[in-house]
Design a protein that fits this description.
The complex is a heterodimer of chains A (299) and B (317).
Chain A: H1 14-25, H2 31-43, E1 45-48, H3 56-67, E2 81-84, H4 89-96, E3 102-106, H5 117-130, E4 134-138, H6 141-146, H7 149-163, E5 167-171, H8 180-192, E6 197-199, H9 211-228, E7 233-235, H10 243-256, E8 269-271, H11 274-287
Parallel strand pairs in A: 1-2, 1-8, 2-3, 3-4, 4-5, 5-6, 6-7
Helix pairs in contact in A: 1-9, 2-10, 2-11, 3-4, 5-7, 8-9, 9-10
Chain B: H1 2-13, H2 21-26, E1 62-66, E2 72-77, H3 81-100, H4 103-119, H5 121-130, H6 135-155, H7 159-163, E3 165-167, E4 173-181, E5 184-188, H8 196-207, E6 211-215, H9 222-232, E7 241-244, H10 248-257, E8 263-267, H11 271-281, E9 287-291, H12 300-303, E10 306-314
Parallel strand pairs in B: 5-6, 5-8, 6-7, 8-9
Antiparallel strand pairs in B: 1-2, 3-4, 4-10
The chains are: A alpha/beta (299), B alpha/beta (317).
Chain lengths: 299, 317
């Protein structure tokens, strides 16, 4: 299989994208629909800890939070997955038990991706062997920007093979790609190479996920679906820490890909502090009283 | 007609001192007279003060304030609970650095506020007169407000030494109590003394390192909003004091219930409102300070929004 070339792709209208995004941000979601949206956001969160200072203790703590987001709020879902480094997969798997929460592991020399291909594949196999249900890989941005699209493509194909049954999320690191045209190109390349999900960012580079970038990726998913009939998931990650912004993303998802993608199976938020803000909003809806971070557990 | 346009066109860029030779030659009647119009005075738009900026209310609502003669003095923003929510976020974000600022710096900034108010005294006298005070009473109120700021500026580096203590205990511990600001304070300013009452309400709060959100007097909010301009030009960091105008009976409940507010100061004697405040404040055990009538500045008003931290430090074996 050959990688798609940029010259065969339609150009992205950046002004049009910004205007469309501004429209999504003006939608007013209130009361019952807001509560429903907030619950959906919670169920789509990949609760993430990707720090050099992570310890097994911290990961166990995060898993407890993932399973029981709040003590007293009634009828709230658990998050979709916990996202950790390969070293922490075993610990997370053990802590989550039969809760139904997936363990996602970053791999392929996250976040830079600067390692030889065989090392990256080994890392994926190791993480899958330890029990990871999902693998978040990074593409080689350097090679992509150099124009070596085929090498990037072949690497994703090899990674997908190494994943076996595990789901593969491909991180484009859009903050390093520079233009929306390249985002669109990289999205298509990743999907054709077999990605189950495409993901905006590692969260280690600014800017991370933005609404314009996510819209371009969603449109790429839609067009790919029309061409092939295969659904691909979307995961914006990094910088989405407020419930209000998350709801804007859901509006964008609903109006670009439709009802079928409105589930944790097809859309995820990569976030560490979003969950607490959503819980605060839910509590506000329930009691009518504005909330404080002081009364919600940090991890 | 054609000629007039030509002449006017020329008159725009050819001032008497820079007449080009060709223009001088062709202008037969000298400069054409521009049509005159009566000048409209430029009225101030009174807005909210949140996070060091002057936004309008997000709700788009306003209410009218009448002067002493019953004429419309201004349209004021009628702040909503969402404006209050934004103000609390700003105050919380500003808290750590303001509480951590040295006592001297807080004192200097308060003194700077007094300086700025002194420089603008006339503006405030005019506003107070508009609301019905005579000139002498207005001047007296502005002077008292300036003195109040200077008074609390002086206390910033002294209340700790006066009110902290080393406590005698019957064990081998060094036991001491120091004061720390409680956090974010919501303030319902009194309806009387539009300027002085407002300044007296907020000064001890920020002197002690707290940040706050103040609701201006509903009948008489002009001075409080103008005072925001004084704060804005006095190195008071954004968010340390946020000022709203609006309906007290609509906003008081949120001032009292917000979980991210640590204390509430209410000036007024409405029994129903006081009961509501006490009930709502119980949600997060907010400190409630009710001031039924105006009191002259004193250091105990700083202590009202301070938390005492007592430390047991082992000594000897």
């Amino acid at each position: 299989m050959t990688a798609p070339k940029p010259d065969h792709l339609p150009r992205v209208d950046e002004v049009g994208v910004d205007e469309r995004v501004a429209r999504f941000r003006s939608r007013s979601i209130k009361k019952a629909s807001k509560v429903e949206a907030l619950n959906l956001v919670l169920s789509q969160i990949d609760l993430t800890t990707l720090e050099g200072q992570d310890t097994p203790g911290k990961v166990r703590q995060l898993c407890q939070k993932a399973m029981r987001l709040h003590d007293t709020l009634p009828d709230i879902p658990h998050v979709a997955a916990v996202c950790v480094y390969p070293m922490m997969v075993e610990e997370a798997k053990k802590a989550l038990g039969a809760s139904g929460i997936k363990v996602a592991s970053v791999a392929t020399s996250f976040p830079s991706g600067m390692a030889p291909s065989d090392v990256k594949l080994e890392e994926i196999k190791l993480a899958v062997g330890l029990g990871a249900d999902e693998i978040d890989m990074v593409i080689s941005r350097g090679k992509f920007l150099e124009g070596k699209y085929q090498e990037v493509f072949d690497e994703i194909v090899a990674c997908k093979e190494a994943c076996g049954d595990a789901h593969l999320k491909v991180i484009l690191e859009t903050g390093e790609l520079g233009t929306l045209d390249r985002v669109r190109h990289a999205s298509l390349l990743a999907m054709q190479a077999g990605a189950d999900f495409i993901k905006t960012s590692t969260g280690k580079i600014q800017p991370a996920a933005t609404m314009p970038v996510t819209l371009v990726m969603l449109q790429a998913i839609r067009d790919y679906y029309y061409d092939t009939g295969r659904m691909v998931g979307m995961k914006p990650a990094g910088g989405i820490s407020k419930a209000k912004l998350a709801i804007h993303y859901l509006v964008m998802l609903r109006e670009t890909l439709g009802e079928a993608w409105m589930s944790p199976d097809w859309f995820r938020f990569g976030a560490s502090s979003l969950a607490n803000d959503v819980l605060m909003q839910l509590q506000k809806q329930r009691t009518g009283i504005y909330q404080s971070e002081d009364y919600f557990s940090k991890d | 007609m054609d000629k007039t346009i030509k002449a006017e066109g020329r008159s725009i860029d050819s001032t008497p001192s820079r007449k080009t030779p060709s223009a001088a030659k062709s202008a037969s009647g000298g400069r054409a007279k521009l049509p005159t119009s009566t000048r409209l005075s430029v009225e101030k738009t009174y807005k909210l003060y949140i996070n060091g900026k002057f936004p309008r209310t997000e709700s788009g609502r306003y209410f009218t304030v009448a002067d002493a003669k019953g004429n419309i003095a201004a349209n004021m923003c009628r702040a909503s609970r969402k404006d209050f929510r934004e103000a609390v976020l700003a105050a919380r974000a500003a808290f750590n650095s303001w509480a951590g600022a040295s006592a001297y710096l807080r004192g200097q900034i308060l003194y700077r506020v007094a300086e700025m108010l002194e420089a603008r005294a006339e503006q405030f006298v005019t506003e107070l007169k508009l609301m019905g005070l005579d000139k002498r009473a207005a001047s007296r109120e502005v002077t008292a407000a300036i003195d109040c700021l200077v008074y609390y500026a002086g206390w910033t580096d002294k209340y700790q030494q006066v009110f902290s203590a080393v406590n005698p205990v019957a064990s081998s511990h060094f036991n001491f109590s120091i004061l720390e600001p409680v956090g974010v304070v919501s303030i319902l300013a009194g309806q009387e003394n539009a300027l002085l009452g407002f300044v007296e309400a907020i000064s001890p709060v920020i002197a002690g390192g707290n940040t706050g959100i103040a609701l201006a007097s509903q009948q008489n909010p002009l001075c409080a909003i103008s005072f925001a301009e004084v704060l804005h030009s006095s190195d008071v960091p954004p968010g340390v004091i946020n000022i709203l105008s609006g309906y007290r009976n609509e906003l008081a409940e949120h001032f009292a219930s917000h979980m991210n507010v640590n204390a509430i100061i209410a000036n007024g004697d409405d029994a129903g409102e006081i009961k509501m405040i006490q009930e709502q404040a119980a949600n997060n055990i907010k400190r409630v300070i009710i001031r039924k009538e105006a009191i002259a500045p004193d250091p105990y008003q700083i202590i009202d929004t301070q938390e005492t931290k007592t430390t047991w430090h082992p000594i000897g074996g």
